[in-house]
Amino acid sequence: MGPLSPLASMSASPYDEPIQTLPGVGPAKQRALEALGISKIKDLLSILPKGYQNRVQLPIRDLKSGMQARVVGTILRLQTLGSFKHQRLEMILKDGTGFLKLVFFQLKPVAYLLKAKPGTQLTVTGEVTAFNAMMQMVHPKVALGNKPEPFHGVCAIYPELKGLSSHDLTKFIEAALEQVQKASAPDWPIEKLQELKLLPLLESYQTIHQPVEAIADPGQHPAFRRMAFEELYHFQCRLLKHRQIQLKLQSPILPRESARELFQGLLPFAPTHAQIRVIQEISDDTSQSYPMLRLLQGDVGSGKTAVAACAAKLFQKNGYQTAMMAPTEILAEQHFHVFSQLFGSERVGKLMGSLSVPARREMLKSLQSGNIDILIGTHALISEDVVFKNLGLCIVDEQHRFGVHQRSELRNKGRKGSFVPHVLAMTATPIPRSLALTAYGDFALSVLDELPPGRTPVSTHLLQGDPQKNVLMLADKCLRNQEQAYIIYPLVEESEKMDLLNAEQAFAELAGRFGSDRVALIHGRMTGAEKESAMHRFASAQADLLVSTTVIEVGVNVPNATCMMIVHPERFGLSQLHQLRGRVGRGERKSTCFLLTPQLFPSEETYRRLAILEKSQDGFEIAAEDLKIRGPGDFLGTRQSGLPIFHHCDLVQHADLIEPARQLAQSIISFHP
User: pTM of the prediction?
Assistant: First the structure.
């Protein structure tokens, strides 16, 4: 970012002055502000207006309730009313076209008006309200005469906050701007601000709080972009400081291995170049004394499980255990099956809520004694009674499906003082780099950006009409061709019961038509044993049709399944649809995904969104579109994913600022650790 700015050391900055230095901020207002997290000038100036109103100078007769206006008139009369402790000043202003009532409940700020006499000329600016059939202003801004300070035609409107009125905020922010203007505030080099299309900080605050003209597109305005940049910069600083703390911890130091030899010694097929690259990155990370924090992204079918197996092998060879946590029992069962084949069933354990008490007790005993090298399970892995002998690696699959606390609890299973396990997080949802740098900024990123040879592209078709009739037609065709099919019904958030009934009704209709032995059903309310039994029937080709909700979204591998039907796809995100589509195309036969929509689309936008899947097989391209449409919070699922809450930054609109903010934070932290 160029030369260091004095802003790196904010201790001498006027923006860091406490709010009680502002006129009008007494103990009560200070407590109200601090209760809202506002303790410094910069906190106050970072409150964005909820909107703007055009303020115009008008004759009194043209005033209407709700408008922001400026009026020039003379005092007709004024009087002080109320008891000593609750006095108020009221005056009537006239301008030849009408009368305007002015009310002041706080006398101290307008003490000079108490000496005013009828006929004195005033200029008042504020919000007009109607009271008792008369227009009035409460606590307007007042200037004597008809030559007041410059008039801002656009007025910032602030939200009402607990203990603070919109008027309070306006007054305090104006005072804060005046105070900062008098000081010499540091800033970043002007050439870098211009390069990023940002305004200097003081100019940004002035533009936001006292605009001279309407701001049509705040998100892309240089002043608002500067606020977004500041927020991103400070967030990246916090991430880097957290990373510095991580670097002071200790983790197992493993000898560097050849990624190709490690892969070929474990797996019966050739690796892709991307897999070799990522395995080597993992080996390099784990040869250091500090803990690995690596996020592995890969499109559907890119071979993430093979990379995870190689990582586990690396630790097994050096006497350490691996814990692998998956979000669903179906996915955990799939991983257990694969790892048991690779490592031998006696060295791999599984732990899920559905495990019987005796089996769980025996498995935990083997784990603690070190007879199990790899433990695979759901969030049951973080139960209090799960004790490892020598945990060296934590693998979290579909890691955004877990809360920050759950991921931390798994890692703590291997914590011994300053010693912690290495962490490999994985996701099959390709996350655009800009979002990954923010949501998972303390992780190093690895990307599997190529597919193993032999993967058959899945053709995708939008099919309009009665979805259930199309399901029956396509199911009949699959069975005649001796193929297997998934039939997916949406998870309806407003009523899970509705979703369950849809899946069950479809199952009953298909079973009645084709025979119950040929149809299996899976949904989230079934027990683990029931889901495992249904999945086994489908995977072993005992059942040809699997009716399901989205519990089979990730990890399920049935090579003979060639058809994916998704009913009401408009209820899913694009990335989720792409994940579901990835359940087919895993064998040699041509596979197809049908998006079964009603006859009429809810909107043209829905059609355009779903049509992206017809054109693209690229998960990263689809994810980028999904992010634009749904926004970061919905894209990642929930707040538990660890995505910070930004007040000024929109991670889609301001994606171009994330990398510069990170680079600047790195340069500052390196000089001021």
Answer: 0.76
